[in-house]
Write a structure and sequence with these properties.
Length: about 400
């Protein structure tokens, strides 16, 4: 694929252009196979560049969104819970059990079809890499089944690339309520044994009503012993030990971080933990937003993600995340775009995505807009005109612009 006529190109490679986003004007990108092979001024496209040509017509091209936090595999619907919450009831972690019951009752085919639909939906709004957590099965069989469904998604070249996470420590399931430590034993033993081969990450929900710091530490240590990278749901519903635990165990990312003390921010900074903020969870639970500017000021890398799940954030839409991060969390449009692309890549410890320089994966999104600022400036408007996934055009066929060389 050759994309030319790009009015504004976001490379996220500061050495290639202006500012931290490495902006280039009147640019072109050449992809060879699934990789970017050349980036530069449209007037200097190398001769004999292969493949179909996509004329951006002066529009903006950005790296595909990296959604580094989702719970994509589940069954059921909790719209009644949402409606009750909007009428004044608080959110409680216990709602997760409702989805666990629906997920256990669903067939594997149903789970696959539903996850596939959500993955397609994510792709249509510009997501080219998506992290997918288990956590709605909570038995050895059901967690392994969710990771199997996840691995099927990962095999599909027409869907976003999938990065799988084991979240057996999401909540204590009903059958273990009398024996939470027994459940932790199960998670760090047989469940991890069954799930680790299909996962790259181990996560836990450190929160009142879910797991305490000691329980999460045990699970994360066991995950690390199985070779998994670590991430943690931390300080979402109230202050707690999660952020400092993430720092202590060397987690790649701590997620949510709505309620942070100065010592928490310090610990994240010192340990170099990426802060993954999930503003639609605050939007959909009517909660205060995390203080993104304070984290940035402390030198923490901030990623933005959807948290797609049926309880707190039923969206796959990264442009909405960007708009909320700008409007409600005070990020600049540049910082928000970076967090939703390069920030997500950092949260997944991936060097080959989230940017558009030579050698990077050719995952790119053509916006129906002259700049990425429109993602926040035109909230709720579907601005994704085309998506190139690993060098192939998978969404959108701007007919006027596509020509064979
Ligand atoms: O990330 N925090 C824990 N898990 C989800 C909520 C899951 C649910 O309510 O089903 C979250 O917000
Ligand atoms: Fe989550």
């Amino acid at each position: 694929v050759v994309v030319d006529g790009i009015g504004l190109l976001v490379t996220n490679r500061p050495e290639m252009g202006e500012g931290p986003l490495g902006l280039l004007r009147d640019a072109a990108v050449v992809a060879d196979g699934d990789r970017v092979s050349w980036v530069g001024p449209a007037s200097q496209i190398p001769g004999g560049a292969p493949g179909p040509r996509l004329d951006a017509g002066g529009r903006c091209l950005i790296p595909g969104f990296v959604d580094s936090h989702t719970h994509l595999v589940f069954a059921g619907d909790r719209s009644d819970e949402f409606a009750a919450r909007m009428a004044g009831l608080p959110y409680r972690a216990g709602g997760i059990s409702t989805t666990v019951a629906s997920t256990r009752a669903a067939t594997e085919a149903e789970l696959t079809a539903r996850a596939e639909r959500l993955a397609r939906e994510a792709l249509a709004s510009g997501t080219t890499t998506i992290e997918v957590k288990s956590g709605y099965g909570l038995t050895v069989f059901d967690e392994a089944r969710i990771l199997l469904v996840t691995s099927r998604l990962a095999d599909r070249p027409d869907l976003p690339s999938v990065d799988p996470t084991f979240l057996g420590a999401h909540v204590v399931p009903p059958e273990h309520l009398q024996d939470p430590d027994g459940y932790v034993e199960l998670v760090r033993g047989p469940m991890l044994e069954a799930c680790a081969p299909r996962a790259r990450w181990c996560d836990a929900f450190c929160e009142r009503g879910a797991f305490d710091a000691d329980q999460c530490r045990e699970v994360l240590r066991a995950g690390a012993a199985h070779g998994l990278g670590l991430r943690l749901h931390a300080n979402q519903l109230g202050p707690g030990p999660g952020a400092q635990l993430a720092a202590e165990v060397g987690a790649t990312s701590a997620d949510h971080l709505t309620h942070l003390s100065p010592a928490d921010v310090d610990a994240l900074t010192q340990a170099g933990v990426v802060a993954t903020l999930l503003p639609v969870a605050e939007f959909s639970t009517r909660s205060p937003y995390p203080d993104a500017r304070r984290l940035l000021a402390a030198g923490v890398v901030v990623a933005l993600a959807t948290d797609c799940n049926p309880g707190t954030s039923y969206t796959t839409c990264m442009p909405l995340v960007v708009a909320l991060a700008v409007r409600e969390m005070g990020l600049t449009p540049d910082q928000a775009l970076w967090g939703a692309t390069a920030g997500g890549a950092a949260a997944l410890d991936r060097q080959d995505i989230g940017a558009l320089g030579p050698g990077d994966r050719a995952d790119m999104v053509l916006l129906e807009a002259p700049s990425h600022i429109h993602l926040a400036y035109r909230p709720g408007v579907p601005l994704v005109g085309a998506v190139v996934l690993g060098g192939s055009l998978v969404v959108g066929q701007p007919p006027a612009g596509v020509a064979r060389p």
